[in-house]
Amino acid sequence: MQHQPLSDCKHVHSFGQDTVRPGERRTWIVIGLTIVTMVVEITAGLVYGSMALLADGLHMGSHATALGITAFAYFYARRYAYDRRFSFGTGKVNALGGFTGALLLAGFALVMAVASIDRFFHPVEIVLDSAILVACIGLVVNGVCAFILRHEDHGHDHAHDNHHHHADHNLHSAYLHVLADALTSLLAIFALLGAKYFGLYWMDPAMGVIGAALITRWSWGLLRDTSGVLLDHQASDRRCAKIRHAIEASGHDRVSDLHVWAIGPNLYAAVISVQSDNPQSCEHYRRLVAGDRALAHVTVEVQRR
User: Fold this and answer.
1) Is 200 part of a structural domain of the chain?
2) Total structural domains within the chain
3) Which of 18, 119, 126, 224 is most exposed, with minimal Cβ within 10 Å?
4) What CA–CA distance (Å, rounded) separates 298 from 283?
5) Within a domain: residue 7?
């Protein structure tokens, strides 16, 4: 049951967070596929003695947890979209879910690295053919999951915002977890083939270390982007410049102070202080910046010069 806006409120601050986001449905599908594949890979890794395969299975276990956090963040943001305790709605729950997922990604990358290094010194026999087959199945499942979670945030607007504040960080976290799974599956196959045809058994733990390093890099990027949202980083110079230009185009007005920050996926709040020798109403200045549809909440202060 959702909270409804109170009748005495002048306006509400849900900003569309009360609706089911497309990423939520996709996430639940991927959770089911991930759990099934996790069980198969962990079992096969233990039975067939492959560290790369076991690491892949454990990694998928971490991602099942992270995807659960993603799904919960979607639910929580929707459930409390009208809760007045959230001054600007629940949009930042999205970034918090992504930040938590990034921490889990980094933690399990560390576990992978430690376990792989230990396998260098304590090798075990690997049943190569069976391990390769299971790794291939894992790669296919991960590829399907990545396709399901693909989203429009990858690409077209990234050049316009230094910290990608517009993105659905919750969905991006889930996507990175699945992509990391696909990477570890691919590395596992590569390592097992090297061991099978060239006797390079050291490649099995080596691929675990390489995978951990790449996943750590991905998690760092997501931590950087989501922490920027959680700490109210100023929006990109490009977005701020567009707002200034819209206000100052007449020549009578000057923006003396401007704060623009993300409050959710592709949602921004702005506080604009305007000095003018011909002051207009606050609504007039709001209309001037209305072309930026991402500005969900605009506060204007007008002073005579």
Assistant:
1) yes
2) 2
3) 224
4) 10
5) no
Query: Could you tell me if 208 and 140 lie in one domain?
Result: yes
Compute the chain's Rg from CA coordinates: 24
Whether the CB-CB separation of 262 and 227 falls below 8 Å is answered with: no
- Contact by Cβ (8 Å): 239, 161: yes
Beta partners for 260? 270
Identify the three-state secondary structure at position 304. Answer: strand
Would 81 be classed as within a structural domain? yes
User: Is 290 domain-assigned?
Assistant: yes
Q: How many of the other CB atoms lie within 10 Å of CB of 284?
A: 13
Q: At CA 79, angle to CA 73 and CA 84, rounded to 5?
A: 110
How does pLDDT run across 120-154, given as a tens digit for each residue?
A: 888 877 778 877 887 788 788 888 888 888 754 44
Would you state the structure tokens that stand for residue 210, as one six-digit string?
């390489």
CATH assignment of the domain containing 254: 3.30.70.1350
Let me know: does 166 contact 153? Beta carbons within 8 Å.
Answer: yes
Residue 215 identity? I
- Residues 143 and 127 occupy one common structural domain: yes
Q: Is 171 exposed, middle or buried (0-12, 13-18, 19+ CB in 10 A)?
A: buried
In whole angstroms, give the CA distance from residue 28 to residue 104.
19
Look at residues 232, 226, 215 and name the one whose alpha carbon lies nearest to residue 179: 215
What are the tens digits of pLDDT across the range 247-267?
999 888 999 999 999 988 888
d(CA 192, CA 201): 8
Q: How many residues does the chain have?
A: 305
